[in-house]
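Dear colleague,

Thank you for sharing your sequence with our group. We've completed the structure prediction you requested, and as agreed, I am returning the results in plain text so they can be pasted directly into your records. Please verify that the sequence below matches your submission; if there's any discrepancy, let me know and we will rerun it promptly.
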Amino acid sequence: MKSKITILCLFIIGICLVACGPTKQDAIKYSDEITTQQRKVVDTENKLTRAIKDGQLTNLDGMLKDLSTHIDSATATVKNMKDFDGKSALKDAVLALFTTYRDVADHEYKAWLRNLKTPADSVNDKVLSEEQMLVDNINKKLDKASDEFKMAQTFFAAEYKFELSKY
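Please find the predicted C-alpha cells below.
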C-alpha cells in the first residue's frame, strides 16, 4: 500500500511539472540565446557597412568573410537549439533572417565590393547607379527580414508574458 501511495505521489508531481510548462524566465533565456546570435550577425554586418561608409576599403573582403563566418556559426547554433515549449516560430524566424543575410552577403555585398574596387577613373553613372541599386536591395531585403523577426519576437514575448528589452 505504501509503495502505491509513493508511486501515486510521484505521478501527481510529474503531471504538475509537465502541466506547468516553461516559466517566463525560461522564455526570456531562450529569447536571449536567439537574440545573441542575431546580434552577432547584425554587429558584424554593421562593421562592414561602417567601413564602407567611412571609406576604409582595405579589408572589406576579410570583413565580408567574417560576416559569412558569423552567419554560418549563428545558423548552426540556432539549428542545434531545441524548440521552445514545442514551438519553433521564434527559431524559424531567426533562421529565415540568417538565410536573408546569407543571400545578401553572397550576392549584393559581393557585387558591391567589386564595384568599390573600380578604379576612380572608370567610375561612371552606370557604376554609381548599380551601386545605389545594390544598397537599395540590401536595405529592402534586410529590413523586411528584420521586421518579420521582430514580429516573431513580439509574439513570443506576448505569449510568455515578458517585455523585450531595447538594444
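Summary note from our side: The helical segments are 2-20, 24-53, 60-79, 89-116, 125-159.

Kind regards,
the structure core
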